[in-house]
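Researcher: Good morning. I'm working through a list of sequences from a screen, and I'd like to move beyond sequence-only analysis. For each chain I'm collecting a predicted structure so we can compare shapes side by side. This is the next one on the list. No need for commentary yet; just the structure.
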Amino acid sequence: MFEEFQSVILPALSVFGDNRYIQALLAVALSLVAGWMFDRIIITALKNLASRTRFDLDDHVIGLLHTPIYSSILLLGIASATLILSPPELYLNIGFSLLQSIALFVWVVFLLRSNRIMLTSIASNEKRIKIVHHQTLPLFLNLINIVIVILTVYFLFSAWNIDMTAWLASAGIVGIAVGFAAKDTLANLFSGVFIMADAPFKIGDFIVLDTGERGEVTHIGIRSTRILTRADVEITVPNALMGNTKIINESGGPHEKHRCKVSVGVAYGSDIDKVREILMAIGNAEENVCTNPPPQVRFRLFGASSLDFDLLIWIANPRLRGRVVDSLNCEIYRQFNEQAIEIPYSKQDLYIKELPARDA
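Model: Good morning. C-alpha cells for this chain:
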C-alpha cells in the first residue's frame, strides 16, 4: 500500500523539483491550505444552511466537524511527507500506525460528543422516540459509548498490526461467565428496556398489580419500578416481574378520567323512580364528578333482600377515587334517611314453633 501511495504522491510533487525535503514541506503546506479552505468555505456554508433550520442538532454537529476533518487533512499531508522522505520501513510502519492512532482518537472524540448531543436532543424533543427520554438517556448514552470504545480498541490494534484473535476469544469466555452470573440482573435490564419501549404505563399513572397493590408509578428504572401506594408506602418491583404479570392501568386509555361505581340497595317496595332521581342529584352535586360524561344510574339486580342500584360517575384522576366515594356514600345515606328510603341489611328472624314443656 505504501508503494502505491508513494507512486501517486511523488509524480504529483515532482513538478516542484527533485528535492524530497522541499516536496515534503509542500505536501504539509498544501494540506494546511486545503484544511483552511475547507474550514472557510465548506464548513461556513454548512453552518449558514444549518442556521436556517428549526433544529439545533445540525448546528452542534457541524460545529464539531471542524476539528476532525481539519486534523484528518493535516495528518494526510504529514503521511504524504513521510512517504516522500522514504524513511526505513520500520520507522515508516511506526509513523503510519502513530498517524492512524491520532486520527482515530480525533474521530472518536467527535463521535462521543456527537452521540451525547444527538441523544440529548432526542430526549428533549416532545415528538421524540418514546424509548429515549430523560430517564433512559444515560442507558443509551453509555451503551453507544461502549460500542464506540470497543470498535476504537479494535481499529487501534489493527493499526498497530496486533492480532486480536486471543483477545476476542477471552472476551467471549468472560461474556459467557458474566451472563450466567448476572442472569437475573440482565433479565431486569432487558425487561426495563422493553417496558420503556412498549410504555404500558408511565410515571404518574395509577396501576393495580396482579397481587392487588394499587398506587402511583413514581420511577421506572433500568432494574426496577417503584409504586407509591395511597398509604404512602413505596413498593419496588423488579422489572422482570413487571414484564411478566398482568397490570391494570387506571390512567390508561384515551384520557386519564377514571370511572367509579357506588353501589347501594333499597328495600323492596321503594319508589325506584325516586331512588334514581336522588342518586342522579347526588352525582351531579359532587364537585369532583365530571360533567362529561355525565353521571348515570343503573338498576342492576333484584337481590335477596334489596333492589340493587349503581351510581356510575367519572372523576378527573384515579387518585380522587377514595375521597369521592366517601363523599357520595355519606350523602346517599343522609338523603335516603331524609326521604324515608330504607337501606336493608342482612338480618335473620328466629321463629320458635314450640317451647319445651316445663318439668313439674
